[in-house]
Peptide deformylase (Streptomyces rectiviolaceus), 216 residues
Amino acid sequence: MAQDTEQQASGGVLPVDDEGFVIDTEDCEERETAYRERGTSRPITVVGNPVLHKECKDVTAFDDELAQLVADMFASQRTAEGVGLAANQIGVDLKVFVYDCMDDEGRRHVGAICNPVLREVPADRRQLDESNEGCLSVPTAYAELARPDYAEVTGQDEKGNPVKVRGTGYFSRCLQHETDHLYGYLYIDRLSKRDRKDALRQMEEGTPRYPVVPND
Ligand SMILES: [Zn+2]
């Protein structure tokens, strides 16, 4: 309906399921487009840029400037063909990430989370998944990394409302990866020394398919 679309386009509140988790799987195309069309794509920071290697600041002002940042992040994510993007990946020192990612059942999730905190997940839901992982800030490199295949994140939406998000499979990986970013960690920081070196070598040998911020 028109009114719903309008509300969501301006960053409306997502519905929640009966356990209080946001339903971020509806109207994905419309919501992602609405964000992206209000945004400007910005170049991506790469490993070595100091903004990626320290904890970002908490979001405290849920204002127009934040809404513009989220829009810019969706635009940048699309340009770089990413499935998740943290604010410090476009050089902004604030705890926000956006995502446009499939879970292990092929459902698309679209959303934005401020001040995310990963929740401890019960042991029976923490099967490790050893899929390949990559990062827009480590262009052209991939490495296998074991992560729990289920994750829950609490935080706030871009209006400041408390939210809980959960995901399985690749989306679980995404939630963990993006939260890590905002605390100053890249996935390569979780690799063995050897695998990290190999990922950095892949990056040296490759050419990113999207604009990046050169390091000094
Ligand atoms: Zn990343």
Q: What stands out?
A: The mean pLDDT is 93. The domain at 2-10+18-206 is CATH 3.90.45.10 (Peptide Deformylase). The first helix runs from residue 2 to 9. The chain has one domain: 2-10+18-206.
